[in-house]
Design a protein that fits this description.
By secondary structure, the chain is of the alpha/beta class. The protein has a single domain, classed as 2-enoyl-CoA Hydratase, Chain A, domain 1 (Alpha-Beta Complex), CATH 3.90.226.10. It contains ten helices and nine strands.
């Protein structure tokens, strides 16, 4: 589920679950959490490249595992997500995301937790949370406004429209755009540069830039736990599988 490779002080982490299109499933979340915890504890690692491979990055949450849950189970589900979010955002290791293909929902959120986002010109992005009756999560309500401003973030998160790599670059969602198939190569080049920088200032800078994240995650945890039991979420999930437009009623 996770492929790992290393060149010098740079480690490349690649999500690998092609059958589910790298869905941000519970097994994927736990695998990523364990992987990044190990990297954080390894002082010889100085920078990380985070990718989903040459076809796509991540299509977001595993809709098949969603649905009505007791409040305790829903809160525990979010706790695991937030352990990973905090680790990515507050890690002492600088991170570069390499995006090919789709980065949707939680997949987009994961990319934005990295310091630099490199995307192929053929990459496509979408928030998508509202289409299944859920609010934006995985820290995107902190990271996206920080990149593009609150006004642009509203348009991306509320309309849930697909946008291109060129639009993402113009808006500040991503930092670099490269040719198709070149994202990992460019991300690795940038990570190698970061690996030469003084590690303590890097770690402290990342920590300060993550200020405010915990407040957002607290609200996110409460909101998503509630929405998991909503009829609109059930309708959004049914519409997803039936490949039709959802009809929401606000309950």
């Amino acid at each position: 589920m996770i492929n790992e490779s290393r060149e010098g002080a740079v480690v490349t982490i690649c999500m690998h679950d092609p059958e589910r299109r790298n869905a941000f499933s519970m097994p994927m979340r736990i695998a990523l959490l364990n992987t990044f915890r190990a990297l954080e504890a390894d002082s010889s690692v100085r920078a990380i490249v985070f990718t989903g491979g040459d076809k796509l990055f991540c299509v977001g949450g595993d809709v098949t595992a969603m649905g009505h849950q007791p409040m305790g189970a829903a809160l525990d589900r979010m706790r695991i997500v937030h352990d990973l979010v905090r680790l990515l955002a507050q890690s002492s290791k600088p991170m570069v995301a390499a995006v090919e293909g789709w980065a949707v929902g939680g997949g987009l959120s994961l990319a934005l937790l990295c310091d630099t986002v490199v995307a192929a010109e053929t990459a496509r992005f979408k928030a998508g949370f509202g289409e299944i009756g859920m609010a934006p999560d995985t820290g995107i309500l902190h990271t996206l406004p920080g990149r593009v401003g609150r006004g642009r973030a509203r348009q991306i998160l509320l309309y849930n429209e697909v946008f291109s790599a060129k639009e993402a670059l113009d808006w500040g969602v991503i930092d670099r755009m490269v040719g198709a198939g070149e994202a990992v190569k460019e991300a690795s080049r940038l990570a190698a540069i970061l690996a030469t920088k003084a590690p303590l200032p890097m770690a402290l800078t990342r920590s300060v830039l993550a200020s405010g994240l915990d407040d957002v995650l607290l609200r996110e945890r409460e909101i998503q736990a509630m929405l998991f039991s909503s009829t609109d979420h059930e309708e959004g999930k049914a519409a997803f599988f039936e490949k039709r437009a959802a009809v929401f009623n606000g309950s």
